[in-house]
């Protein structure tokens, strides 16, 4: 039996290794546009490769039907993944947070060992091969690149991902193939991405980093709250908390909903307590500019903008400010609202949402319900995970199920 896999990322590699281990008689060809396999694996976790997570459920995923992932997560849970890693010589570093990294702390270790496993199984790897078209003639598939046609494939697996990180030669060609065989797909969007705000304060807050309670409001209703790092940028906001909350924010943004984020700089302090502390601070220092004294609790970049938002004179002195103005400052620090107008796009996103509709895919084999012997796995499907190793784990798990089916 002859099999083509389009995309040498986590899902495609896992499908190939699993299938060939179960059936040595298979001929498996993997095609990838890049010079080497696993480019997105290399980019994961800032080069450290957040390869999986010990605690995973459908609640960690977004899509038209997040529960689609349940069977894959059951069949290929973290323990199964750990066993697979040991089988290729990869040891893991499991953090208290549940995030999992290679023990070497280098993503290159992962791709090197995966390549050796593919090589040992005599799986053919065609790098720098951009698949432009896919046809099915009678019961056989034809894979077409710019230069050549590869014929007589009994089965084809599409693991080509979506548009996140185009600098790594990612594309949405998989959706074109899916459409050609009758599949529909949900609109794609950048996920785990920085957010552009209506007011970026002329970039004056760029570089400011603060742990905040971030609240996401959609049409005036609070839909999600996350505590973590917020980084102010020239375009708006980023940081881990913003990347996390961006998934739901962008999903609503592309549906033309009103999306706002509120930052609480001091979530452990009720607003009245914060006002009292600010008042005590200012009273303790006579005849000084409030903007200067505020830098004792917030960034010197934030202080002047804070006063401007509260319509307080930048040169007001500590003995001139009144209780109403102090309360206004406390309220602003307790709920700093920013309207979200856009994202930083696919080139700055860690993952893509949207994709091939899972209702058209068998959740146990990942075979198309519309075209026999055509399979989809990984990011090309309308499933996107939270930050923390969830996207890679879904790629491994879906690729594993495909591999099992391919071996039959």
UniProtKB/TrEMBL annotation:
SUPFAM superfamilies: FAD/NAD(P)-binding domain, HI0933 insert domain-like
KW Protein transport (keyword) present: no
Key words, A-Z: FAD, Flavoprotein
Domain RsdA/BaiN/AoA(So)-like insert residue range list: 189-350
InterPro entries referenced in this protein's UniProt entry, alphabetically: BaiN-like (IPR004792), BaiN-like_dom_sf (IPR023166), FAD/NAD-bd_sf (IPR036188), RsdA/BaiN/AoA(So)-like_dom (IPR055178), RsdA/BaiN/AoA(So)_Rossmann (IPR057661)
Superkingdom to which the source organism belongs: Bacteria
Stretches assigned to the RsdA/BaiN/AoA(So)-like Rossmann fold-like domain: 2-404
Cofactor dependence: FAD
Pfam families to which the protein is assigned, alphabetical: HI0933_like (PF03486), HI0933_like_1st (PF22780)
Keyword Flavoprotein annotated: yes
The name this protein goes by in its record: Aminoacetone oxidase family FAD-binding enzyme
């Amino acid at each position: 039996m002859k099999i083509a896999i389009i995309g040498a990322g986590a899902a495609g590699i896992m499908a190939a290794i699993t299938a060939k281990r179960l059936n040595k008689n298979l001929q498996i060809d993997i095609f990838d546009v890049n010079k080497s396999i696993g480019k997105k694996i290399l980019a994961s976790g800032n080069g450290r490769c957040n390869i999986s997570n010990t605690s995973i459920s459908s609640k960690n995923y977004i899509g038209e039907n997040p529960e689609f992932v349940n069977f894959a997560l059951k069949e290929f849970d973290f323990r199964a993944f750990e066993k697979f890693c040991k089988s290729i010589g990869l040891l893991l570093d499991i953090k208290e947070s549940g995030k999992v990294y290679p023990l070497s702390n280098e993503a290159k270790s992962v791709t090197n060992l995966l390549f050796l496993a593919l090589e040992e199984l005599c799986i053919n790897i065609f790098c720098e091969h951009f698949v432009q078209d896919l046809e099915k003639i009678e019961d056989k598939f034809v894979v077409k690149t710019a230069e050549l046609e590869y014929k007589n494939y009994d089965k084809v697996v599409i693991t080509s991902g979506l548009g996140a990180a185009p600098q790594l030669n990612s594309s949405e060609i998989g959706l074109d193939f899916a459409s050609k065989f009758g599949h529909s797909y949900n609109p794609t969007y950048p996920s785990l991405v920085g957010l552009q705000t209506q007011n970026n304060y002329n970039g004056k807050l760029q570089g400011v980093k603060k742990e905040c309670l971030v609240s996401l409001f959609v049409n005036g209703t609070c839909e999600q709250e996350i505590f973590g790092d917020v980084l102010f940028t020239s375009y708006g906001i980023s940081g881990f908390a913003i990347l996390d909350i961006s998934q739901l924010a962008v999903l609503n943004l592309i549906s033309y909903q009103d999306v706002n984020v509120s930052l609480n700089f001091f979530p452990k302090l009720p607003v009245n307590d914060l006002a009292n502390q600010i008042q005590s601070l200012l009273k303790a220092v006579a005849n000084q500019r409030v903007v200067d004294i505020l830098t004792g609790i917030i960034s010197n970049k934030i202080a002047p903008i804070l006063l401007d938002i509260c319509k307080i004179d930048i040169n007001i002195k500590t003995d001139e400010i009144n209780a109403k103005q102090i309360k206004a400052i406390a309220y602003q620090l307790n709920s700093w609202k920013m309207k979200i107008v856009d994202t930083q796009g696919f080139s700055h996103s860690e993952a893509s949402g949207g994709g091939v509709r899972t209702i058209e895919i068998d959740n146990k084999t990942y075979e198309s319900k519309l075209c026999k012997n055509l399979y989809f796995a990984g990011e090309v499907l309308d499933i996107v995970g939270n930050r923390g190793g969830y996207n890679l784990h879904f790629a491994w798990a879906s690729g594993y199920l495909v591999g099992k089916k391919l071996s039959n």
